[in-house]
Amino acid sequence: MRAARFYDRGDIRVEDIDPQPLEFGTARIDVAWCGICGTDLHEYLDGPIFCPACGKPHPISGEDAPVTLGHEFSGVVSEVGEGIDDLAVGDHVVVEPYIIADDVDTGPDSTTYHLSENMNFIGLAGRGGGLSENVVVRRRWIHKISDSVPLDQAALIEPLSVGYHAVERSGLSADGASPAGKTALIGGAGPIGLLTAAVLKALGVRVVMSELSELRRQKALDAGVADVVLNPSEVDVVAEVATLTDGVGADVAFECTSVQVVLDTLMDALRPTGVLVVVSIWGHRSEFDMHKLVMKELDVRGTIGYVNSHPKTIELVESGKIDLSPFITGKIGLDGLVDEGFDTLINRNETAVKILVSPSGNGID
User: Fold this and answer.
1) Beta strands in 36-86 (DSSP E)
2) Alpha-carbon gap, residue 3 to 267, rounded angstroms
3) Is residue 271 within 8 Å of residue 245, measured between CB atoms?
4) What is the pTM for the complete model shown?
5) Is there a contact between 128 and 122 (Cβ–Cβ < 8 Å)?
6) What residues does 61 pair with on adjacent strands?
7) What is the bridge-based pairing of β-strands 98-99 and 120-121?
8) Are 356 and 34 in contact, with CB atoms under 8 Å apart?
9) Domains in the chain, start-ordered, CATH in brackets?
10) Is the alpha carbon torsion for 234, 204, 169, 292 positive or negative?
11) DSSP code for 261
């Protein structure tokens, strides 16, 4: 089968490889669509980061480069291994793409398995990936999804789960007190910022977004995930948020850029005792204003990935509370991964939100 393989920084090759063997407790998934993630771009530009370098196998998967890429994917079950009685050939599924040690509790009550030692991801550290025609996955990480959800939209469940977990980390969730009437400020309308906004809107939160790109500001409005979208090069975001909240400030803020000036703006725009959630991956140290943190009694929280978030995220999509179709801005085949996909997202990222890849080429117009 054909697959996109990471060899090293700047070296991704589409090549023929043998399919993975079906083992006890696993199922084979014919991949329908796989999204290109910012993490994939970082591996291409600066890696290996999550991908294990050649000669340095990952301690859990035991694999090293080359590895198959792709961790945001949907597909159809094509083969079911022994030991599985609740999946059938033809089921539509998405994958929670974790690689986690066997002795870690990944049960439904766990809130920390995503923070376990040597945690990594299918499609980055081995065990196949979504940028291949099919992939074999352990049952624990496979989630069924209704046939009523198109498979291209289903490929966005994984990044949407990142947004869902970020919202949970903020203290606003469907399981707590109603968040309606709260105001959230999001710094950055990239894929994760937009999908976090979609979760917030589904919960009844008023969403304000700050974004430089005109196209992404318009996407937030067209998709209906933001009530107010601000251009920080033209307006004082802090003053605008103060006006919108009768001088109080935002209840929660989500940093989705890893840009210092955005972090500073969010801290200024939060109300006293507000919550700041850092969603983006920072590859450098921040000049954090500790005095402001103390004087406003801000609550700063990090968030990474998701933990038992997929079922609730899927419910939001299946119920129609979140429409993922506006965020799909391109569809390509595997041969266009670097020249069409990566190049667009690296050099013209303001023109795209989520580019999907069809490893088989099916569904490409």
Assistant:
1) 67-68, 72-80
2) 43
3) yes
4) 0.95
5) yes
6) none
7) antiparallel
8) yes
9) 2-156+324-358 (3.90.180.10), 163-302 (3.40.50.720)
10) positive
11) H
